[in-house]
């Protein structure tokens, strides 16, 4: 009677194992890993190996559970510094950007598929959000290091825009199912938006604080801490949704709050959540792949691919450009943020809702969303790194690889135990002295442990144990890193000239005739001016434009101060790579130039009229 259990477990476990092994292909060839997961699900489905799965309610339940885990981990892994740096533009993208994308894609869907306005907007809402799992994988695991502001913007946006897309999709599905159509959209939107987002943020903050409070005060077996944290995150997701709020937003905010507080067993939590997030992604993509029938794709393939291309090349860029106009983003940054608009599991998950509601064109919407996701992962997912290289956003490596592991101390200590493996030709192996505050506690050499005082000079192959505050880790990494080859594009990225950031702005103005604003004190140092223009924080690769000049952050110290800066002159050639996406600053300069030319023409016309009158 229960013979079906073993084949089910066999097939399910086999699919998961195969999916894990495909990660080797993704890491080696740069393939979008989530696309491989989705492909395995499609290959095992009814049109492949023949596994029949058509339970849309179960698929949506499993997908929602996986989404709660992914969003909580996304927030947990986002530093407060990154969130603050990108909060304003990311929130605008996650709200207004999603609305703009929904509207623009909705109009195109209406024309391509002959849908009603409400159905067209529903199609736009389904594919309006970027996929957090895909973006995080490509940015954190994909082996590219881009400018911190751009990376933070993409990560925060992808982690926070799902609630808006979910809200719009559910609202439009309910309107269509009730027969109200688009007429009830405005009232439902205003009331529903305030309730869902308000409850989501409030309960997310309270839930995150409660998780930290419980973890730090309850004595449990070590292995139980990750389990109770994950359980409370899912509990918060469900409770918020039950009250009419956005469970997705609550899960993300709770993760953000908990991840930026001192919590017990953090290292264990991080490792466990990483594993559970990978499992959630694999299971969600496999189930969504099993649910689809590729044989039905042919009916909507051409308009669906056209809509996917329209989304990539028109709708997403227009929405991003309009949303980022008030902020200080350059053309290449706006172009890259537009391109990293990958659609993923959330879009397919939302496309299940029309099927659950038995809408007339539910299968059309589902199959179209699936094709859009496949197209996005194929085109955008495979070209993220080349696009970043072409736009000049990849930060050249300043140090080589570091072999380091951090060990968690019990309680809430302000220090951590760091173990470095000394590599050949690293600065410490070449004789450079360690700072006074970084005296090792133990040296392990050739399997023998010894005190630092008796070890003599540190040698390649040594394991060095030391207790330090986490904020100093980056400084020590430079001493223990293997030598790095200076890339040919180092000067192209950091500027041809090095300048002393402790010098006053007056020196920069005198040497390069820098066009510094009239209300800026020339006694202010270059470093202070750069941090002020950058919103109070500076990261390696950040740029500050001053007319034809561009100041570039080459290095920052442990306090976040600019300790080394570069100077680039005449960056017009680089900016010409992207002929669109004029920044807010460029638009102001363009308008100011046109007004100046108009005034000049007006003055010349008056002069000619006056001369003509004098002759008469």
From TrEMBL:
Gene Ontology cellular-component annotations: plasma membrane
Domain (Cation/H+ exchanger transmembrane) ranges: 17-390
Domain of life: Bacteria
Biased composition (Basic and acidic residues): 606-616
Statement: the UniProt record of this protein carries the keyword Metal-binding: no
GO molecular function terms attached to this record: antiporter activity
Residue span of region Disordered: 596-616
InterPro entries registered for this protein in UniProt: Cation/H_exchanger_TM (IPR006153), Na+/solute_symporter_sf (IPR038770)
Membrane-spanning intervals of the chain: 6-27, 34-53, 59-80, 92-115, 121-143, 164-183, 189-215, 222-239, 275-294, 300-324, 336-358, 364-384
Pfam families the record matches: Na_H_Exchanger
Subcellular location, record wording: Cell membrane
One annotated GO biological process: proton transmembrane transport
Main location: membrane
Gene3D superfamilies xref list: 1.20.1530.20
Protein keywords: Antiport, Cell membrane, Ion transport, Membrane, Transmembrane, Transmembrane helix, Transport
Membrane topology listed for this record: Multi-pass membrane protein
Name by which UniProt lists this protein: Na+/H+ antiporter
Biological source species: Pelagibacterium halotolerans (strain DSM 22347 / JCM 15775 / CGMCC 1.7692 / B2)
């Amino acid at each position: 009677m229960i013979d079906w259990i073993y084949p089910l477990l066999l097939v399910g476990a086999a699919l998961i194992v195969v999916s894990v092994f495909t990660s080797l292909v993704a890491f080696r060839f740069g393939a979008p890993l989530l696309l491989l997961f989705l492909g395995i699900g499609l290959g095992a489905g009814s049109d492949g190996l023949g596994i029949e799965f058509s339970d849309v309610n179960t698929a949506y339940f499993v997908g929602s559970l996986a989404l709660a885990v992914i969003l909580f981990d996304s927030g947990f892994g986002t530093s407060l510094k990154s969130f603050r740096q990108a909060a304003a533009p990311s929130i605008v993208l996650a709200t207004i950007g999603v609305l703009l994308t929904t509207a623009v894609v909705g109009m195109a869907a209406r024309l391509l598929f002959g849908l009603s306005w409400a159905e067209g907007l529903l199609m736009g809402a389904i594919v309006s959000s970027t996929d957090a799992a895909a973006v995080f994988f490509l940015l954190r695991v994909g082996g590219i290091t881009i400018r911190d502001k751009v990376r933070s913007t993409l990560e925060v946006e992808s982690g926070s825009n799902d609630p808006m897309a979910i809200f719009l999709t559910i609202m439009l599905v309910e309107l269509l199912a009730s027969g109200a159509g688009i007429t009830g959209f405005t009232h439902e939107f205003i009331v529903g938006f305030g309730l869902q987002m308000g409850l989501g943020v409030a309960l997310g903050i309270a839930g995150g604080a409660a998780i930290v409070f419980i973890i730090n005060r309850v004595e449990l077996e070590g292995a139980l801490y990750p389990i109770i944290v994950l359980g409370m995150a899912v509990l918060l997701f469900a409770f918020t949704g039950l009250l009419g709020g956005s469970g997705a937003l609550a899960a993300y905010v709770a993760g953000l709050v908990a991840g930026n507080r001192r919590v017990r067993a953090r290292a264990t939590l991080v490792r466990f959540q990483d594993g559970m997030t990978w499992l959630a992604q694999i299971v969600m993509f496999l189930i969504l792949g099993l649910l689809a029938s590729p044989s039905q794709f042919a009916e909507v393939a051409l308009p669906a691919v056209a809509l996917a291309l329209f989304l990539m090349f028109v709708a997403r860029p227009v929405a991003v450009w309009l949303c980022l106009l008030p902020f200080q983003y350059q053309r290449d940054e706006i172009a890259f943020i537009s391109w990293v608009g990958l659609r993923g599991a959330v879009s397919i998950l939302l496309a299940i809702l029309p099927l659950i509601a038995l809408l007339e064109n539910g299968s059309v919407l589902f199959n179209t969303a699936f094709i859009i996701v496949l197209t996005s992962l194929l085109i955008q997912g495979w070209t993220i790194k080349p696009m970043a290289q072409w736009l000049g956003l990849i930060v050249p490596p300043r140090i080589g690889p570091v072999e380091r592991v951090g060990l968690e101390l019990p309680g809430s200590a302000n220090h951590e135990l760091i173990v470095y493996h000394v590599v050949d030709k690293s600065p410490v192996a070449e004789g450079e002295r360690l700072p006074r505050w970084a005296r090792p506690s133990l040296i392990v050499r050739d399997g023998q442990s010894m005190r630092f005082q008796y070890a003599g000079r540190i040698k390649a192959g040594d394991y060095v144990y030391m207790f330090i505050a986490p904020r100093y880790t980056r400084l020590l990494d430079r001493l223990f890193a293997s030598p790095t080859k200076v890339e040919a594009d180092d000067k192209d990225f950091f500027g041809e000239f090095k300048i002393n950031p402790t010098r006053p702005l007056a020196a920069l103005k005198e040497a390069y005739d820098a066009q510094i604003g009239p209300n800026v004190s020339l006694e202010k140092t270059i470093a202070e001016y750069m941090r002020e223009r950058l919103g109070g924080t500076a990261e390696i690769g950040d740029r500050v434009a001053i007319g034809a000049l561009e100041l570039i952050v080459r290095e920052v110290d442990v306090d976040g101060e600019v300790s080394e800066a570069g100077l680039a002159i005449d960056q017009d050639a680089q900016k010409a790579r992207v002929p669109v996406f004029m920044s807010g600053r460029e638009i102001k300069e363009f308008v100011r130039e046109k007004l100046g030319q108009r005034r000049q023409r007006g003055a010349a016309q008056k002069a000619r009229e006056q001369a003509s009158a004098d002759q008469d």
